[in-house]
């Protein structure tokens, strides 16, 4: 009786271990796909917004900035850096930065 009980416990532990491994594998199966979707899902909309804002700004205020002889070229690398940081932070947090922005409005 004791030997049967030990065999059953051993078999149960083996089945539980297999189920835990299967569950863990399913959980991490598409980890890189989700990370890529978050990365590009943040990067592309932010770049579209940046270029749309640049187009509108230059269309309406570009000539005025040219007359003032003021250079705003230094701000573009900062905006590019901020966009890339937002995309990397989105992957790290596993939630897009744009989701937080849209939740506030």
Overview of the molecule:
Helix content is 87%, strand content 0%. With 105 residues, it is an all-alpha fold.
Briefly say what this structure is.
By secondary structure, this protein is an all-alpha fold. The protein contains 4 helices and no strands.
List the SSEs and their pairings.
Layout: H1 2-27, H2 31-68, H3 75-93, H4 97-104
Helix pairs in contact: 2-3
Q: Can you tag this structure with a few keywords?
A:
single chain; 105 residues; mainly alpha; 0% strand; rod-shaped
Number of helical runs?
4
| Strand-pairing-aware structural class | mainly alpha
Q: What's the story with the biggest beta sheet?
A: none
- Describe the global form: rod-shaped
SS elements, strand count: 0
Please estimate the helix content.
Answer: over 70%
Q: What fraction strand?
A: under 5%
Ends: how far apart?
A: 67 Å
